[in-house]
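anyone seen this seq b4? input:
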Amino acid sequence: MRWAPDAPIGPLTRALGDFDRGDDPPGATTVKRSAARLVLRMPLGEDQAVFWKCYRVRSARERLRFSVVRSRARQEFENLLRLRKRGFSTVEPLACAERRDGPWPGRALLATRELAGAEPLAEALVRQASEVRGETIAGLARLARGLHDAGWWHRDLHSGNVLVTPDSKRLVLVDVQKMRRVPGALPMFLRVRDLGTLVHDLGVRVGPAERERVLETYVASGPSELALAPLRVRVEHAAARRARRRMRSRARRCVVDSTGFRVERVGRYRIFRRTDVPLEHVFETLEAHRRGGGSSTRVDGVLGGPPPGPAPNPFHRAQGLPEPGAPALAAVEVRGFPGRHSIGPLGRHPGMLAWRKAHAALLRGVDLPAPLALVEERVFGCVRRAWLLQRADGRLGRVGCAVPLQDPAHGSQ
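predicted toks r here
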């Protein structure tokens, strides 16, 4: 355990005891849950609260890595203390704790004090008036320049990792576990990487005008003015690379446990499904398909899936979660891929290709029926048969294995 000087040790120690027993602290509510971390809000007195971040070790690779380096909770705790010492506005760190079983790391926790009334900058920018938004964007650019001139490389600089106070006068850094500091001022190539992430994020959320304002304010706000034209060219290239990487990352989320998708094993079956599609409905639909006896079956009354309409935002973090307006029940087409497509554990069978490419196409704005789940039957690690569950909503027909994945914005595959 590590404590900040003004931390309320008693309540935090009791909360750590609850975590150690596998329970949540009394009165705690879930703010965010993902495969990597759990965020809880715990009341602290009448008018205060504490946010707990519970970082999980997800794989043997991470277990080996964090056995020799600091946990994410400790990295963030120490970064927050160092940033506050150097005059940057951050949330107040209170404590961090790491649990180890011998040399092997387990869960790591970080406690920070709630900043009353603050909200994520990503949400504030959408509702702010144009004049206030312009000042906020300029303040964000000055914050980035101050960090870079002091040698701080953020590595994940976007509006979701910054809070804004209710009066829109102060920007507060959060989620700084990735930050690193170098001696002296930050080199230009690292500045470009941070600015590329920021410019891409602002372009997605509020539009191209704010992208230009960020760069203009950034080059003019430091002790020495930078050249705007060459910086703009480099940052635009970095933003385009960031967009391509994020698009690929979003497309891969349908095959890993993430906020919006689940990967589960039930007996000899492996199931990939959207989080808003219940597992029992997947098996009920598959059983109805088997009773039909054909290669393709329409099943009515399946719960879950996105609402009909435009394709989802490819940069929405909760892709696959229930969305406003989602139908309670919908018709689903089940397609079977027979045993002649059997393939080893390292290959991709036609059902998996259709599942992945359907999601990739949706993220690129192609109007397709939403894929809901993929079920694989495995024998000794090899796929013998597979079934794809896809919304049957009267739009374009079934998704095959030859869906083109060209990105219209960048022309990349």
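The longest strand covers residues 92-101. Confidence is low (pLDDT under 50) at residues 395-413. kinda curious what u guys think
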